[in-house]
Design brief:
alpha+beta; Profilin-like; TIM Barrel; 3 domains; about 25% strand; rod-shaped; binds ligand C2E; binds magnesium ion; Cyclic-di-GMP_PDE-like; transmembrane; cell membrane
């Protein structure tokens, strides 16, 4: 990956890792704020409903008491009783008597002259005979209005404010609705009646409690269970915000305390990887690669016919195995430089040996990128020209990973072969489409992967695979080299199966050139038949 790209990705990942918990914290804060507000609203609506029911209960009880009176209506004795009733019920302001649209008398006003205080037809009459005048003017004070509730010619007057007289620090809007009439008859001072009436109409279909969120307000509707009453509460968002801010700070603190360490962790992880990649990059620049050589032996007589060059990274005085850095090198676009350096090391370390034993060979592992063009071939050609080393002494090991673009790979492989370099398929059997390659790729040999050799002599199902690969290779006229032979039993089995060559600890471990040269010159000339 390009350095700049890597940085961008790292920064994005780190930011995401930091912001994700913060986002969750803020989201939870929002949920909590909403939940708390809903709870508070609900508690408030319950209190308001109970209050309205209480006032209404007093009105009904007062009417009942009036119906029990035995005195002639509006006589002095009757008026005394009416006053007693207004004093008994704290919310009742006046108790009066009416007949056929005319008020006759009341506790406060005494007898009323005919025509003096006309009573219009009720605004609403319930099926059980309750009459409602939702908004009647009060004598002596034009500013004030009362709710009149009447039955059987008796009525009580209530200040409409007593229905909504609930202590509220949040200044929410509250209205009480007569649900049969669907009409608001009491509301807090300054409440937006149109809005409340609309909210009631929109949310009154369900039964019991109902809550709704609107853009600028939360609304709760609560219906009384035993009276034709409902309460509508509307809480503006501004009230919620005060709550929300403190919760937001809490959410941010929690989110950041999880997000920042997570972000640091991600950043460290990424940059550590990045720095390892950077380290590898500078190692390649400073030519810090080394090569070890592992013998490849003829199974017929155990003589070494060649070696495989295996790269090592000299890092802080230690040799790092290729499995740990080759994939990174492939990703970082360093593999071609490594292949070139391995070739240079081989030629400088083994040049003499190769010239001395012209049938001895070195096989080189090439990377995915090396199979995409003829670049490495031309490097190879240039280095070998006039070196006294024959092309067939340098062999190419390609893994199936390199065949992702089969047409290009096929062309490159053919070019190596045309130039006299035998090509091997490495780790054969581990890629998932090995057989299809065999059909379309012309190669010289297969290296059977160690995992198949390991199963020889075991009961495992895969232990039957090796003989099939061998038989197939033979029928295609391909040489077979078995990898990872560790004991004699495996070697014997493979030899019986007709495998020509083997590689593994049984014949020799990967070793530095000096060691290889010593072993070979000591054993010459037979060892290198
Ligand atoms: P490979 O090409 O299949 O190499 C064989 C690996 O098996 C080597 O591991 C070798 O040390 C190990 N091996 C050989 N015989 C035995 C045995 O009897 N027992 C056990 N347990 N292991 C055995 P190494 O050197 O770690 O290389 C690993 C892989 O790295 C190689 O697998 C090859 O794919 C890759 N590699 C090595 N050098 C290069 C290189 O220069 N360029 C590229 N592109 N890849 C390389
Ligand atoms: Mg190999
Ligand atoms: Mg292999």
């Amino acid at each position: 990956m390009q350095r700049s790209w890597f940085l961008v990705v790292t920064i994005v990942l780190t930011t995401l890792a930091t912001l994700f918990p913060v986002g969750i914290g803020v989201f939870m804060a929002q949920l909590e704020a909403n939940r708390r507000e809903a709870d508070q609203l609900s508690v408030f609506a319950d209190a308001a409903t109970r209050r309205a029911e209480l006032v209404m209960t007093q009105a009904i009880n007062a009417l009942q008491d009036m119906e029990m009176l035995r005195e002639e209506p509006c006589t002095p004795a009757n008026l005394v009783q009416l006053r007693r009733i207004t004093y008994t019920y704290s919310y009742i302001q006046d108790a009066g008597i009416y007949r056929a649209g005319k008020r006759l008398c009341s506790a406060l006003l005494g007898p009323i002259e005919p025509g003096q205080l006309p009573l219009p037809p009720p605004d609403w009459r319930t099926p059980d005979g309750l009459d409602y005048w939702f908004d009647q003017p009060v004598p002596f004070n034009a500013q004030r209005h009362v709710v009149l509730i009447g039955r059987n010619g008796n009525n009580v007057g209530l200040d409409s404010q007593v229905f909504v007289d609930v202590v509220d620090r949040e200044s929410r809007m509250l209205a009480v609705v007569q649900t049969d009439a669907g009409r608001i008859f009491s509301a807090t001072q300054g409440a937006n009646l149109t809005r409340l009436q609309q909210a009631y109409s929109e949310h009154s279909y369900g039964s019991g409690a109902d809550a709704a969120q609107e853009d600028d307000a939360s609304i709760v509707l609560r219906k009384s269970r035993n009276m034709p009453l409902a309460v509508v509460v509307l809480a503006p968002r501004a009230a919620l915000l005060a709550n929300w801010k403190s919760l937001l700070i809490g959410g941010l603190v929690v989110g950041l305390s999880a997000g920042v360490p997570l972000g640091i962790l991600v950043w460290r992880r990424a940059t550590r990887r990045f720095s390892l990649e950077g380290e590898l990059r500078s190692a390649v620049r400073r030519h810090e690669m080394a090569v070890h050589y592992q013998p490849i032996a003829s199974l017929a007589d155990n003589h070494w016919v060649g070696v495989e060059a295996l790269v090592r990274w000299r890092r802080n005085g230690r040799l790092v195995r290729p499995n740990l850095f080759i994939p990174m090198a492939e990703n970082a676009g360093l593999i071609q430089q490594i292949t070139d350096q391995v070739l240079d090391i081989i030629l400088s370390e083994l040049g003499t040996l190769l010239r001395r034993f012209p049938s001895f060979y070195v096989s080189i592992n090439v990377g995915v990128e090396d199979l995409k063009s003829r670049r490495f071939l031309s490097v190879l050609n240039a280095r070998l020209r006039g070196s006294g080393i024959a092309p067939q002494q340098i062999r190419i090991e390609a893994t199936e990973r390199g065949f992702l673009e089969p047409d290009v790979a096929r062309d490159t492989i053919q070019a190596f072969r045309d130039a006299g370099h035998p090509v091997y398929i490495d780790d054969f059997g581990t890629g998932y489409s090995s057989l299809s390659y065999l059909q379309s790729f012309k190669v010289d040999a297969l290296k059977i992967d160690k995992s198949f050799v390991d199963t020889i002599g075991q009961e495992a199902a895969s232990s039957t695979v090796a003989p099939h690969i061998i038989a197939m290779a033979q029928s295609l006229g391909l040489q077979v080299i078995a990898e990872g032979i560790e004991d004699k039993m495996q070697a014997d089995f493979l030899r019986e199966q007709g495998v020509d060559y083997g590689q593994g600890w049984l014949f020799g471990r990967p070793m530095p050139a000096v060691e290889l040269a010593q072993l070979m010159t000591r054993a010459t000339p037979q060892a290198v038949a």
